[in-house]
Amino acid sequence: MAPHVCIVGAGVSGLRCATVLLEHSYDVTIIEARSRVGGRIAQSDQMGPLEVDIVSTGHNPIIELAKETGTPLHLWKENTLLVDSEGNLVPTTEANSILKQVWEILDQASEYSTSCGDRIDPSASLYSFFESWCDRAVQCGDMLNRERELVLGMSQMWGAYVGDRVERQSLKFFYLEDCIEGGK
Q1: CA distances in angstroms from 173 to 68, 116, 119, listed in the order given
Q2: Would you state the pLDDT for residue 51?
Q3: Which residue among 66, 78, 160, 169 is the one 20 to 30 A from 33 at the CA level?
Q4: How far is CA 117 from the centre of its chain?
Q5: pTM of the predicted model as reported, rounded to 2 decimal places
Q6: For residue 161, with 0-12 CB atoms within 10 Å meaning exposed, 13-18 middle and 19 or more buried, which class applies?
């Protein structure tokens, strides 16, 4: 009788673990809390097809898996490709600027969550932080309405990375997410 292994989580690691174990004749059961597989990698039909973005900081076995499965890869050092709500390609310099703003807002949300978490309403979402930040920037003249819409649209893609819609991401507990910079 083959050994039976239970894997908690149907993200990339859990699915890869199951594949390896099945290849070695183990019986495998995967338990997943969500109603879908993929963990922190998800796709949305709300914004058209999304490609999986994977970053390597050295030898990364996920890169090999992505190559084996034909998963498209994107290096963060490449220029940002962004399409507006009308389906038009945003000029590269503007798209790169929008992405930079998104990362700055994520950094500020993380800092705010870390330092003020005890005062943040549990129902406050990461998206509400984005909206407030963008609204203040527009009011101060630091951001145009078009930039606001692009930043808010790009913030929606954050959910694809963490496995849940950005409107459902808790701002109070955002500090619990993996370090954005990956080095802490």
Answers
A1: 36, 10, 11
A2: 45
A3: 66
A4: 21
A5: 0.58
A6: middle
